[in-house]
Specification:
single chain, alpha+beta, 7-stranded mixed sheet, 4 helices, 9 strands
């Protein structure tokens, strides 16, 4: 009997290890990769759930308030969720977010970054900080 293979590789994710690469559609209309998200001092990937808007909106607004300081320090902020693209686009417009939101269809990237809620299999709430080389420097849930 053949063993089933995962559709998407699952990587160990912890500080010091490289973040898995990805290519996702952004609410800006561009496809973004991990490399395109990284600024001179790295990036914060904010994985947020698609099933509880109030907590997620609060965190997205906190990141918005911190955006200028992070950007001035050479760190990008990028939101990632499995919400459909149209909903993400409307959410970004409604909250007037200065950073892009990326559409993670099927939670593929969320799975790779271990930002998934089981058994619901929806994007979980996790912040992952990466340095300019794409190495994970910190992981936090919210």
């Amino acid at each position: 009997m053949l063993a089933a293979k995962a559709l998407y590789p699952v990587f160990p994710i912890s500080p010091g290890l490289p973040g898995p690469d990805f290519s996702l559609l952004s609410t800006t209309g561009k496809t973004m990769t991990l490399a395109s998200c990284l600024k001179e001092n790295g990036a914060i990937l904010a994985f947020f759930a698609s099933h509880c808007f109030s907590a997620d909106q609060k965190k997205l607004l906190q990141l918005k308030a911190d955006y200028s300081r992070q950007l001035a320090g050479g760190v990008a902020i990028v939101g990632i969720s499995a919400l459909n693209w149209e909903t993400l686009y409307e959410l970004r417009q409604t909250l007037d977010l200065p950073y892009p939101l990326l559409f993670d269809s099927c939670c593929r990237v969320s799975k790779q970054y271990r930002a998934i809620l089981i058994p619901k299999f929806v994007t979980g709430r996790k912040l992952i900080a990466l340095n300019a080389s794409g190495l994970v420097t910190d992981i936090a849930s919210f």
